Amino acid sequence: PDPCPAVTAAHLHRLTAEQMDEQRIQNVAYQYLCRLEEAKRWMEACLGEELPAPTELEEALRNGVILAKLGHRFAPSTVPQKKIYDPEQLRYQAVGLQFRHTDNINHWRNAMTALGLPAIFHPETTDVYDKKNMPRAVYCIHALSLYLYRLGLAPQIHDLYGKVKFTEEEINNMKLELDKYGIQMPAFNKIGGILANELSVDEAAVHAAVVAINEAVDQGDVGVTAVALRNPAALLTDLQEALMSVYQEILQRARRRKAERAAVAEDKDMYEEYLTQREIQDHISAVNVRAAVEQVDEALDVANELALLSALQLPCLALRGLRTDNGPWYLDQLTADRQQKAQNQGSVDPLEHEELQEGVTAANQEAQMVAALQSVNAALRGNDPRRTVSCLMTSDLQLPEVFPFAATFYHRELQLLQRQTAQGELQEEELFVAVEMLSAVVLINQGLEAGHLQQFSSSLVSSSAGYFETLAGVKQQVGRDLLTWNQLQEGIAAVNGSAQDEQQQLLAVGLINKAVMSGDPQRLISALLLPSCGVDEVSPANACKYLTLLSQARQIKAQVTVSRDPGAELWLADIQEAVRMANQQSQRALKCESQIHLPAQVTTPVQFLSMWVRNDQRLDRHRLCLMIFVIIATHLRRFVSDGGRL
């Protein structure tokens, strides 16, 4: 026969066993983290101070300060405040653990002895100080909490298993920590049974009541189970008559599972098979929560605000921050959350307890925001800028930073904006954008008043020297009043327009330089006549003269530069000067021409010489040359004006 199927089955069985073992170890680490969180919350309730997270709680307990404070809380005569070493933990923070910190742990142990907690629960000093067995110390805190609760001296510790979440990293770190010390996890679920054996007749009565509940659950009779659950000695709370049959079903199922797990144990404690008082209470609480969640879901189905409020107020849900006047907000928020959950999962499931708490918190925030927004609108309809700023600064609106010294400015500008809205009310988005803009304007004004260019630049988030000079001038004109957004915008637009003009002018100057390099008079005239160029009194008739003078100026500039750069370019001032000189030369030439009266038929130098020879006129050489130059210039001008046609 082929052995492959058997090998494969064995292999799969081995992998499954490994996975199950890994899951068990992970579950132990998670359970212990839950016990740490439970101990943390209970001690916080007793001491009235915040303690480190459960992942850091073990380390925080090592100096014994928290434990000694716990001892002082319940046995002040045994642990006076002055006996606690390093109560503010300043020494511990500076140099770490000191041997004297062990005194704090011993004070705690003495307090537990004075209170009467059986010594079987007490950890050793080194279990805490040297971290030799920290789970035992946490186990002791749980036992102390149950003991003090039954004496009516302390609040009840709550079971958080399955109700708190930890990251995979936190669970793995705790697993490694437990493996490192090789510590056997104490049986937290047996604390009640051990106390019953160790304590008075009253505790024995609780034990007997719990045993009776387990036996009634085994019988499967709802009536009998209900009687056992109602026994005051069982110390059970929040029992609901309508849910007795559900209690029976859930408890019976849990009882069978526990008995099955304990079947393989040889030396068994009775509470390895029986449900403890705490386990019974936890199952009852879970049933109550589930029923309450379904009641909330039914109220959401029919959109009944009163029914929803009634369900949300059930003690088993213990929802924080619940306000009866926020009923409409809860209905809207939880309905939307329920619809979103249905879309995500593809089925309509009730909102879980955590989701209900998140919805209540979100609805409260929305209601507070709307109320705060109404206060702002009401303040804007009044005449008190300080009240307006006070309303703007409430954390419920979560607006950008508001500067109280500019209260009048905020009030005036927002009042104008409010009047412009169709409904006469500013909405959340409008107010947020407006305040963000106005606060930026306030900072800009502050920079202008102080003359701080750096603060001003950071306010505009741009290169702002030009803005600063322009707006500073506007600020001087308006005096002590803050510049409005419109005034700032006009000033910035003016500076931006000026900068754009300068950019266009630079481009035109570049075109002129290229035209000079090309030696093309028409191209040069086209560049000089660009509106963005800014060169005055350009005459197309002087194109050649412009080209000549600009070429000479460019050559001279190339020679005088340090690097003798042949590509040195002319600036606007150089170009304007060359145009001016060319225009002056043309004007002088025209003046000379007007002083020499020639017959209309004399238009060329040859005609002039012929006339001169015929008339035997005797002209000096200087006058002759000047006349010839005028005629040549006139002829050249006509040539250019005719487009170069002979």
UniProtKB/TrEMBL annotation:
This is Calponin-homology (CH) domain-containing protein. GO terms for biological process: mitotic actomyosin contractile ring assembly actin filament organization. Pfam families: CH. Residues 33-148 form the Calponin-homology (CH) domain. One of its GO terms (cellular component) is cell cortex. PANTHER family: RAS GTPASE-ACTIVATING PROTEIN WITH IQ MOTIF, RAS GTPASE-ACTIVATING-LIKE PROTEIN IQGAP3. Residues 157-184 form a coiled coil. Keywords: Coiled coil. One of its GO terms (molecular function) is calmodulin binding. SUPFAM superfamilies: Calponin-homology domain, CH-domain (SSF47576). It comes from Maylandia zebra. InterPro entries: CH_dom, CH_dom_sf.
